[in-house]
Amino acid sequence: MKMKIEQLYTGCLAQGAYYIESEGEVAIIDPLRETRQYIDKAEANNAKIKYIFETHFHADFVSGHVDLAKKTGATIVYGPGANTNYDIHSATDNEEFRIGKLTIKVLHTPGHTLESSTYLLKDKNGKDHAIFSGDTLFLGDVGRPDLAIKSDLTSEDLAGMLFDSLRNKIMPLADDVIVYPAHGAGSACGKNLSKETVGILGEQKQSNYALRADMTKAEFVKEVLDGIAPPPQYFAKNAMMNKSGYADFEDVLKQGDKPLSPDDFEALANHETALVLDVRPQADYTKGHIPNSIFIGLNGQFAPWVGALITDIKQPIVLVAPEGKESEAITRLSRVGYDNTLGYLEGGIKSWKSSGRAIETLESISAETFAERIKNDTVNILDVRKDGEYNSSHLENAQHFALDFINENMSQVDKNKTYHIHCAGGYRSVIAASILKARGFTDLVDVAGGFGAIKKTDLPTTDFVCPSTL
């Protein structure tokens, strides 16, 4: 039987888990929280999951290693120095594991975190075939070295370790070795990750800025640390869950997947201080929503935005979801450690209306209407895109109010003003508006289609111009 390597990619998290099989034995690398998919895949192939390899203590999602080990008896493997509250095999550098006719070799590559390891897969003939590089090496980038700070280590120290790991462990490998990273574009674990999710090491040696052959360690440290945004607040909490363990996913799903009448829904919101989280498409939210509900739609980068904006990871949550999407919402919440969903509104917003309860709307206008308003009046504009997006190009007189840091920057907005809010495409602006509405802002207007639509009008923008080198 040939070796089988399958990348199981989750776009919302920009995360790749891996299924490796040979001769009826399976290794899973960096599994997601919902483990049934791996078990079903192995059973369908009459194979047994033998090892669960973790490249490091993930910060951007809760891994499924603990549940998967309980269900299969597989051994959890971490790199050197990993300490957990559950049983693992803490591997030594260069230790090898057998999967059928394949060999998986541990390359300790500290830098992103101290225990970070790259797994080198050798084929049945002992030839280096692929690396599963975790957050050590991405396509086009490397992992951020500021997430595992201890009292005696700085981000500069960790960046220096990462430089050595790349030069001593990964760059000496052959150019034809396949690179399977843990993340792609959209992840906050690096700065400029490629949209591609599989690559070749030789290509990375040529194109990845961090692998330049003539690069000094000092240059590497400076370039890797330059422009890194602060990590989302949930990163440290997810890393701790991955080290300490967590509730069974099935229990989390069972607790949350409960239909609630409007009476019960309202009681939980009022008496259990549950957050009303509306996960429908943004157009549905603007047309009618429960007062004080927060919008974060399933149709965008749902889990990362939940993690960035809901500061209490144990926050009780009740859902307003599209019909049939309730369990998906609970699952995606659990991927970033939000395990306290208490139920969902049965019948959705229609049942809320039918019960005679109040709903609110959010004014949403086209970019063309927005342009006409600006020409005819003074308009307060909130641009809620990320720093890099705003700095690249923005409307003249727009106030930058990045959604990432909305909780920290509420003092920058005035409840007595009317604000027109835009992002890049219309998703984040509605999130921002919902948060502002829940905090007492009443005069808010969403610009549908965001900056992409605005750029098609004749409104003047301020674009970034690269300084002349002459």
TrEMBL record:
Domain Rhodanese: 270-361, 375-463
One Pfam family linked to the record: Rhodanese
CDD domains per record: POD-like_MBL-fold (cd07724), RHOD (cd00158)
Keyword Metal-binding: yes
Transmembrane segments: none
Alphabetical keyword list: Metal-binding
Alphabetical list of InterPro entries matching this protein: Metallo-B-lactamas, Mito_Persulfide_Diox, POD-like_MBL-fold, Rhodanese-like_dom, Rhodanese-like_dom_sf, RibonucZ/Hydroxyglut_hydro
Name this protein carries in UniProt: MBL fold metallo-hydrolase
Native species: Winogradskyella haliclonae
